[in-house]
Amino acid sequence: MSRNDKGGITSHYYLIATVITIIGIAVVAKAAYIMTVKQDYWMEVANQKKFDSLIVMPNRGNILSDDGELMASSLPDYKMYMDFKVGGEWKDSLWNEKVDSICMGLHEIFPSKTAEEFKRDLEEGHQKMSQNWAIWPKRVDYNTFQRVKALPIFNLPKLRGGFHYEENSARRRPFGTLAYRTVGDMYGAKDSARFGLELSYDSILRGKEGITHKRKVMNQYLNFIDVPPTDGYDIETTINVQMQDIAEKAVEEELKLINGEVGVAIVMEVATGDVKAIVNLEKCGDGLYRERRNHAVADLLEPGSVFKTASMMVALDDGLVDTSRLVNTGNGQLTMYGAQMNDHNRASGGYGTITFSRALQVSSNIGISRIIDDLYKKEPEKYVDGLYRIGIATDLGVPITGAAAPVVRRPKRNSHGQFTNWSRTTLPWMSIGYESQIPPLSTLTFYNAIANNGKMMKPRFVKRVLSEGEVKTEYKPVVLKQQICKPSTLSKIQDILCKVVTQGTGKKAKSESFAVAGKTGTAQISKGRGGYKSGAVRYLVSFVGYFPADAPRYSCIVCLQKTGLPASGGTMSGWVFHNISEGIMAHNLNMDASSACDTINDRHPVVLNGNLESADYVLSRLGFDSRRQWTNPNSYAPFWGKAGWKSGQYMLQQTEQEAKGTVPNVVGMGARDAVYLLERQGLKTSVIGRGKVVLQSLAPGDKVTKGTLCTIKLQYQ
Description:
Blueprint: H1 3-36, H2 39-48, E1 50-56, E2 63-64, E3 70-82, H3 88-109, H4 115-127, E4 133-134, H5 142-149, H6 158-161, E5 163-172, H7 180-183, E6 185-186, E7 193-195, H8 196-200, H9 202-206, E8 210-217, E9 220-227, E10 234-237, H10 241-258, E11 262-269, E12 275-283, E13 289-290, H11 295-298, H12 308-317, E14 326-328, E15 333-336, E16 339-342, E17 353-355, H13 356-361, H14 365-376, H15 380-390, E18 407-408, H16 426-430, E19 436-437, H17 440-451, E20 456-457, E21 462-467, E22 470-474, E23 479-481, H18 487-503, E24 517-525, E25 538-547, E26 554-563, H19 569-587, E27 610-611, H20 612-622, E28 626-629, E29 640-646, E30 649-654, H21 671-680, E31 684-689, E32 692-696, E33 709-715
């Protein structure tokens, strides 16, 4: 190689090295410039592409009944939108081709809106090229969401079809308003509890929030979990769904009959103190009864005659009197310290001279108050101490927000020995259920102790805390008092409470199938500063007791509030108690039903006409074979037809449906499918009876006039 060639190559190398060096210096300078002068700008750009420390909400725990049935659960619901900008011309042409099919499918899913209305609405969003056009104005459940998502275009990926959604967690109660005030509720748009067990156990049900951050990668935002959320635990309550349903129906029926304002019922398991049912119905402005306040644990009202049992127990336990002591009740009217004391039978001449035991059986105000006043008027502190000793004034400390403790006044004296908060009428009226405020739950807890041979149990609402079926915490039964009184006193009280039902004022609570014990109560409700005489008189009528009396399993209290006479705890509340106790005992009977089986004919479930897909799904889960005979080009629409049983399998055959705008034939269908088909055509429906449709008021095939009423009659065949 010549000297000139070497010099040329060297000069090229120097040139290239110089260029690279200059570029390197430029890159470093530019980087330094970005890191210093432009730092704030590029940090802002970076922040727009990332999202740090985003909260991830955990799944809220379930509230379960005593046998594991869901009483409150968090389930997803969805708000659905359409983005008309994505997909370009290809999506627009596909939209024009499929819009009619989409709208018809939406009408099938949401019959209250016609396909034409859906088309007008969606086309408006299409013209505006909206990126978040609501397909349906309300949130929908998972099953409905899946049906919508299966429609044409909606079933495409988001960036091609434009269908997108918001997923939310909604609190659902499968049994509706059953035990509503006790189970509790959540604020609709907030993850915060309002009342009931939802609020009391919120920290357990809520779980712990997680933390995530997002980064934009290849035009998509990806989630990166920093701290995973911890789902809330489930709580298993003591509420029994069947008992709750029995109690609610019994209370509501009586409230309607007597035009009552408030109805309370509580059922407690004697041995454990478990609250099996708790009812808090209140008459609303529209005349319907709903649960708006937990009266059972929060109401501080004078209990009336159900308190007389506590007065007698104190006197007997102090050894100052026996049940055979005689007392003169006269003609049912007596002036005590200037105030009028009346018995409920004064119009018929009163009870005259009766025993202490009989005074409680017939709920004589005069009989009880005269004996208690005679025994304790010089030392009322001893009487009140006795009330606290037997547990009627115990603060139960129940885990329900708003629960109130009993208010039983203690006598106070000044330095001269004179009472400062006590009058001569206080003791007589306190002894028969006035001058004190006792929540219904406290009264029931006291009577439950009587049924439990003197052992007072704390009311229990929650048995255990669970995580995926595993027990995390168990709340065992708590004994508040081992013995509320002497065994001899308890035996006498139990005997008298049985006679209240068989021979006294509680005969309406009696059952022909098992023994019942309890006590009636009727009290006027004071209206605050207006006292008892401000306008129409309101009454609290009650019955509290237990069953079966010879081997107690359950205790129960019923309290009804109403305005005006008649008002009777024995007649009104006693009858509700009767219906509740009969229903519970019937539900708890274990009967062998094998003798009722038909061993001659094939045993298979009856399948009604209607939605064949639903029928096929259920039959397959039950293990039955079915032969499906249907074809339908609209895969998202249900298959309608009839079902039959032949040669050991079901025949599911699609039938031709009436044209749009005509009355469908729903004979042979169940109520659900029949109402769906009729209302889909724009008709209103009225359902009479139960079973399957045997008659419809509008003939199949007739032209539909929107809004016309079609009455369908159902019966079992």
